[in-house]
Amino acid sequence: MSLTQADVRRIARLARLQVNDTEVAEVEQKLNGIFGLIEQLKAIDTEGVEPMSHARDVALRLREDVATETNRRAAFQAVAPAVEDGLYLVPKVIE
Amino acid sequence: MQWEVVIGLEIHTQLSTQSKIFSASSTRFGNEPNTQASAVDIALPGVLPVMNRAAVEKAIQFGLAIGAKINRKSIFARKNYFYPDLPKGYQISQFEVPVVEGGQVTIRVGDQDKVINLTRAHLEEDAGKSVHEDFHGMSGIDLNRAGTPLLEIVSEPEMRSAAEAIAYAKALHSLVTWIGICDGNMQEGSFRCDVNVSVRPLGQKEFGTRREIKNLNSFKFMEQAIKYEVQWQIEQIEDGHKIQQATVLFDPDSGQTRMMRSKEDAHDYRYFPDPDLPPLVIDEAWIERVRSELPELPEAMQARFQSQYGIPAYDAATLTSSKAMASYYEATVAAGADAKLASNWIMGEISATLNREERDIADSPVAADALALLIRRVMDGTINNKTAKDVLKKMWEAGDSADAIIERDGLKQESDTGAIEAIIDEVLAANAAMVEEYKSGKEKAFNALVGQCMKASKGKANPAQVNEVLKRKLG
Q1: Buried b / exposed e across B205-237, counting CB within 10 Å, b at 16+?
Q2: Hey, which end of chain A has fewer CB within 10 Å, N or C?
Q3: ipTM score of the complex?
Q4: How many residue pairs bridge chain A and chain B with CB atoms within 8 Å of each other?
Q5: Which PANTHER family does UniProt cross-reference here (chain A) (predicted)?
Q6: Which of B14, B21, B22, B34 to mutate against chain A (most A CBs within 10 Å)?
């Protein structure tokens, strides 16, 4: 599998990354290089091997259901660019 | 052309935990904005999610209640999209391997039972809330809800009408509240439905192109939205247009659905396993403990009510429509009321009054044992049915016992044969014309005479006795 420049632009847009016209070719080449490595991995016979979803062979740790966090709004909002009535303000979003 | 409607539902249920799914913030609804948003919830750099055991347990409860497979190992994934109420830039959800797979729910439409298969149910975190009021051209973000545990329940596209979709949503709503994993509060968004709707010519195998109606938070709106959407799709196709896959919103004011986004700019979520969270492992012992602690489920209870109390299927279904109603019924019978009379009173007067006052049966001013006493007074002939309804009204208002009201207001039914005979003799003497009518073969005149006797006794005469004595005297 190899990517086209259109794919690169689309992926960049989905990730909110700015990739200008001169960078597109370079990114395309790098990404396709990674895909080359993946192709090599895919050549390995993995018949009967359970797909790995995590690098470490551990189970998820679970915590008891207790609410212990206190209200730290003032501290968190002190570093926010804009707040009002306890809300974070962001550029207008309309569905 | 005959059209067939195809509907599948995705329902987001908020799990009723104390704390959030990945942080120790409170999940309480309605507090000051951002006062329940911790460093994890607002996604400050360097924080890590830690899974809430209770959220997993509730998912297991649900899976067992619908006879689904509980995956011994399930995986959390990142669902990537950008929106200001999702501070991490991704939602932690489950993708390839959800915690619950399969399962079934039985719905009833008219007098037909139908089994709906479920695809899956997966754990995920809720997003925050955007406030679109005017903040000098900006939007406000409240992250109190961010990280609230959700179980998203996905059905197969097996419903064939709005009525079936509503019945399914109601069945699920009743089940999740029954087993206590969700408070079911639709106004507060604890139970939100996305409905996938398509139409196809009757008999066609392939599905039509579907449109998804997002975020319906009442059964009434769901019904309106589906009916509108189905009609719209059929008209489009009959006018020669093709349906484009899209996400739409229902506007309750206009009663119409409108496009939110088309397939072209549909989200590409680029799911991948979340490296912050190793696989969720659920062992046999845990599942068995949850199984042993599950309450009796509505279907099993319905069957038991029919066999144990000898009441009809309809009664059993109505009485098990909520856990509170079922336990109220059982308590009434346990306190000595006849099983069928108790059913009639609860489905009739009690439910009607509760509905009128918009109260839940759990807060009924007349407790189960108080109702049982009233029913016992009907059973032992102290009062007749009609008087009992008046007594109930007074019990409801004043909170007095049935006996106290019967005593105070002198409502005891007249069962003394001598007294009843005296009343009947008076009535017969005063209504000679009616007696003649009856004797000449007009059966209706008999009922009129019974009515006169009841009136003369101020409603206190035992109706069965009046009938009997009257027949004897006229015979």
Answers
A1: eeebebbbbbebbebebbbbbbbbbbebbbeeb
A2: N
A3: 0.90
A4: 130
A5: GLUTAMYL-TRNA(GLN) AMIDOTRANSFERASE SUBUNIT C, MITOCHONDRIAL (PTHR15004:SF0)
A6: B34
